[in-house]
Fold this sequence. Notes:
The protein contains 13 helices and no strands. With 265 residues, the protein is an all-alpha fold. The longest helix is centred in the last third of the chain and has 26 residues.
Amino acid sequence: MYGYEERKMKDFLRGFPIAFSMYSKIPMPTVKWEENSLRYALCFFPLIGLVIGAVQVGLFFHLTALGFGTMFRSAFLFIAPILITGGIHMDGYMDTKDAMSSYQTKERRLEIMKDPHIGAFSVISLIGYSLLYFGALSELEDEREILLFAPCFVISRALSAVCFITIPSARKDGLQKTFADAMQRKAIWISSGLYLSVTFGACACIDRLEAIVLMCVAAFMYVLYQSFAKEKFGGITGDLAGYYLQIQELVFLLVIVAWSRLIIF
């Protein structure tokens, strides 16, 4: 019995370097990708968001203390998540935009997403996304706003993990399908619930009403995305998960910025 529990714990802990190796550029020890370890990888996925959020807060306070201007600071806040993740989620965003611009069948959209070539529409979408994201970052003015935004990197990844276990796979192969088949659903439900509880709780400590608003926005986006993925693609893929994550983070940022300027109490 003890040996079984010990092996199970080792399998669980191996999910940590697998998650960071797959979804970030942070150096990790080499671990063999076995099904027993893969099933727990998404339990640690939100921790990458914790790293990104911590870096964002550190950059904001450090660059502000050094007297750098808003635009210079925003450039660092914009590029930091891309450097940490290697742009894997932005790649999914661009692939999804290419597929959506084709107005083809579900099957054809899935084929387009696997095409390594970059389409014009995905480039245009990337430019639009980047301008909006950078502009919103430049509107972050005080510690309250950056402290509210930082947990959103954890929230977006926790909800993405939930998507993996609640939305059927659109393909019969691929990395997302591999993870979906191997994952330990109960462990992911529990870990994602803990991440969401802690992060929304942290937001509530800063601004209770805005935390409730962010929670409602997150729930609405999840329902909307679930419908979108099933209707347009027949399920979820790795690219669609990246698209969802990027859109979530942008919307969270826009809500935080808009809240401070439009809501007066």
